[in-house]
Each structure stands twice: as structure tokens, then as C-alpha cells.
Amino acid sequence: FLPEATHIGDACTADIQCSKTFGAQAQCLNNGTCGCQKDAHFMEDLCYRSVPLGGLCRVRNDCRNGPSTFQATCIRGECVCTFGFHSSADGWECIQNILLDGPCSLDSDCFLTNNSRCMGGLCGCQVNFISSADNRRCLRCLGDSCTNSRQCVVRGNVTNVTTCSNEVCECVQGYTPNDEKTDCNGSTQLLAIFNTVLLALFAVKLLRDEFITVTEGLNSSNRNICDCNSIPLLPPNNELSS
């Protein structure tokens, strides 16, 4: 009769003493103690297969093979990171998603934003890219290479003033890039002119409506005033008596 192990690390002489308590992934190690197999890990009193992110799994703990993958889970038979985390390049770590200007230690920490990297401990845009107005994207600078116009967006996220011409981001006709190549001069000026004209037209309309209202009021008042010249004159009394 072989006693069953009750704790990981208990003495053993056969695998059965360990697997009955800690599951099929447990065994009696060469040093005569119970432990998990080479490609397995111990969690919540059982030994589980160590499955990398993207690998096939049966239960969540197959994916949680250490502190670095505690944010992993098993969904539809595949190990994936939970919301807000992404897989490391080697598939053995769930890394928290970090936005631009967020703290980082490796370029992979800035995975959430394309064309970004870790610089000085903060996520920032790579060379020849600028951050968008909402600080969530890294956009190509004017003059950089491109394949379609959607890649060419100036800092204000205005797309109708840029284009991809001959595989280079440029301002459309009538606009010129600023010194930093982050905006097309003319976009803000035209917008300001348009707003000024719009306000002027609105003011003219208000004045016109006010003038019409006042004029109609005066005409209405005049209709209620008696005109003495319009009343027929009566003849003198002596003429009436004759």
C-alpha cells in the first residue's frame, strides 16, 4: 500500500501517489517528492498543463502558468489575455495595454498604439510620426511615405486637406505644410473666414427680421389713428337751417 501525497513536495516512490491528489500532470520526481511534470505548473492545489497564449486549452488555469500570465484565460479552447492586456512576443506573458504618454519599460509595452515605442520611460510616437489630437494614434508627418490618403492626417485630425500623392503625404492644392510638417496652413484660416462670414450673415438676417417686425408694428399702429383731413366738414348752422 502506497500512501497518497497530501501536499506538493511530499515524499513518494511512484507517480500514482502524486497524480491521485494533484491530477494527471503530477508525478513523482527524481528526488523522490511529488511535483508537476516538466511542461506543467502548480496552481490552486492542482498541476495544469502550461499552455502559451494562443495555444489550445481546456480550463483557464492551463493558461495561467505564472504571475506574468495571471491576466490570461481560456476562451473557446484558446489561451488569450483578458481585456486591457496583450500577449508578449514569446506568448508567455500578458502585458497591460498602455496609451501614449503612459509609463513603459519596453517597446512592446506600447503595443496598443501602432508606430509607437518606449522612449524615456513613456510611450511615444516613433520618428516621423506625430500624435493625434486625442493622443491615441501615431500619424505620419507630411512628407513621409504612404500608400493611401487615410494614412495622411494632420494634427487636428483633418483629412480633407491632405492626400497621398506619389506615395508621399502632402497638403492638397491651396494648402502648404507648416515648418513642423504637422499641419496644412490654410485649414484654420479658411475655417475662421467661413465662421466669420456665417456669423455676419446670421447678424444681417436678425437685423432684417427686426426691421420687418418694427415696420409691421408701425403700419398696424397707423391704421388705428384718425386722420382729421379725411373727415368731411359740415356746413355752418345757418346754412343747415335754410
TrEMBL record:
InterPro entries: EB_dom. Residues 36-88 form the EB domain. PANTHER family: ECDYSONE-INDUCIBLE GENE E1, ISOFORM A, FI17111P1. This is EB domain-containing protein. It comes from Timema bartmani.
